Structure to design on (224 residues):
């Protein structure tokens, strides 16, 4: 079953603007990961944030985690056309299978 | 550095035919290995995972099976394909549980 649910399902912004995507999940987690998928390609890992962390940065990416609300957000600052892709959150649930549970993703389009 | 390979990249098979997809990892030992399937426009669903040679866990009942004959080789098989087996199959590895999973380029399977 789907654990993470991304919001919005689709997002279109102008190049240079910031993009924010949200993820909600249902059960307690060990960690949450964000991935990017370009059309028809494999997944590229972006950031892993553990359940005892609240915020993490990597370049233009900023991820927050609120375990009390069971939610996470991914912020991409100063967006570029190359950021156009689908973004997925994936959770590693406490007591769950040794694998990730993915949401349906947010499709991000950066308009030049 | 570690790399993960999948082949073939694309496969078109008739209903009822057998299937064998292969995944190999280089540059690491005793990885955790995973098979996921992505239906069109959806997130990924965990199919199988393996923590060692000959150790396979299945997450969903289905027409598929997996095997791990060598430490860094993971095979997805079917004796008779169904139309519903069509999708994008992704293999992933991680150094241990609760760590980042790294994905291969995927195999696109179309069953006709």
């Amino acid at each position: 079953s789907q654990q993470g649910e991304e919001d919005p399902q689709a997002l279109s912004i102008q190049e240079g603007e910031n993009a924010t995507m949200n993820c909600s999940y249902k059960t307690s987690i060990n960690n949450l990961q964000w991935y990017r998928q370009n059309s028809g390609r494999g997944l590229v890992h972006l950031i892993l944030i553990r359940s005892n962390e609240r915020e993490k940065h990597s370049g233009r990416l900023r991820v927050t985690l609120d375990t009390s609300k069971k939610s996470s957000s991914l912020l991409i600052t100063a967006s570029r056309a190359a950021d156009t892709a689908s973004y997925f959150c994936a959770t590693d649930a406490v007591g769950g299978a040794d694998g990730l549970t993915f949401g349906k993703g947010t499709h991000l389009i950066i308009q030049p | 550095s570690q790399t993960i390979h999948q082949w073939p990249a694309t496969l078109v098979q008739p209903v009822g035919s057998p299937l064998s997809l292969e995944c190999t990892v280089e540059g690491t030992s005793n990885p955790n290995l995973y098979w996921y399937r992505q239906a069109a426009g959806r997130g990924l669903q965990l199919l199988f995972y393996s923590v060692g040679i000959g150790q396979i866990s299945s997450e969903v009942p289905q027409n598929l099976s997996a095997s791990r004959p060598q430490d860094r080789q993971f095979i997805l098989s079917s004796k008779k394909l169904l139309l519903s087996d069509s999708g994008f199959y992704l293999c992933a590895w991680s150094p241990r549980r609760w760590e980042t999973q790294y994905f291969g380029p995927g195999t696109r399977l179309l069953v006709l």
About this structure: DSSP finds no helices and eleven strands in chain A. Chain A touches chain B through 25 residues (CB under 8 Å). Residues 18 and 77 of chain A are 4 Å apart (CA to CA). The two ends of chain A are 36 Å apart (CA to CA).
